[in-house]
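Hi, does anyone understand the following?
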Amino acid sequence: MKIAVVGTGYVGLVTGTCFAETGNYVTCIDIDQAKVESLRKGKMTIYEPGLEILFDRNRKESRLMFTTDLKEGIKGAEVIFLALPTPPGEDGSADLKYILGVADQLGHVMEDYAVIVDKSTVPVGTAEKVNAAIVKNAKVPFDVVSNPEFLREGVAVDDFMKPDRVVIGTKSERAKEIMERLYAPLVRQGNPIIFMDERSAEMTKYAANSFLAMKITFMNEIANLCEIAGADVDNVRKGIGTDSRIGKRFLFPGIGYGGSCFPKDVQALGQTAKEYGYDFKILKSVMLVNERQKTKLVPRLKEYFGGSLKGKTIALWGLAFKPHTDDIREAPALYNIKALKRAGAKVVVFDPEAVANVKKEIGKKVKYAKNPYEAAQDADALMIMTEWPEFRTPDFEKLSAALKSKVIFDGRNLYELKDMEAMGYDYFSIGRDTVTAKK
């Protein structure tokens, strides 16, 4: 099957590459000439484990191509995916200018029937708006389908190639047959393709991400209460996570969620509710708690140093919003850096993948280290923002020698309390007892 993917960001590049891997001929289209040239030369423009191998193979076998020309890119395509940015607008709703802009162009350049697929996360009713934008100029029949993505950064290739489910919103039997044929190789083990109407498919994506964000936020609230009540959130997590009705995932407390999806999607669903006159109280609480949770450790850090961080050097491990990605969108680390700098601290940072993106975002406001121990050298305290695997089992002897004081503020609960006590650390985490070294 010939496929076109408009947009070569995270979702577009994963979608195009993975569909090429199943034998389709895919043309990815983007207005960014420099990005297209890089991709043509075989240079990846995002970091995602496992994607580069598929990208190289399919590019070399001419199943994966790139262009800036929309008309050229969609020529002969049975399916055209719209994988374009939907950034939050001033009111919190998703901005559809990129999607509707391309939809308007498609009507002029389509020469044959095609299924137009909204792959981006979009508000309820977007498929109707896309249809209206295309039909104004279209000379051929087409169908607009909603097919939300459920990709987790860091494991997106597995998520795409072995999906839990595929959600497709369409009332067209012709579009249904084409989409079923396209996804058939990915659901051979029996995972379902769930067909529904377009509005329900659009709502499904927002509902899924908002529910997971709510689950994370609930555990952060439990962790905060545990600290006051003298309970241990790790024990609570294990106690409730074994209940099959609740499940083990998304129960780890920390310094809040970030990334390109959860913050934006929760906000957008809240705005949708507002537009329909519904007071979605839970979502409001989720957003409020998450904002507060991001910098939860900073007041404790200030208190530890007698109320002032002026002149203190703080080492910060982790910049990406989660491990196995270079994505820093809404990353808690950025909020903590801002709070630390405002308090007069010097900040030295390290991350295995996200340093380049942070340099673009904040420049020389912090010092960048080449490895975790260089970041910790002569620091007054260490803060952990991202649960990268290499941070879980560091060389504590080397770390202790580097730090000016053996103090860790851990936003991801990476270490056992008994181990920190045995090594003589002052250790602060989320929802657990504070470990104080014996003087």
Residues 2-196 form a domain with the Rossmann fold fold (CATH 3.40.50.720). The CA atoms of residues 147 and 168 lie 5 Å apart. The two ends are 70 Å apart (CA to CA). The chain has 19 helices and 14 strands.
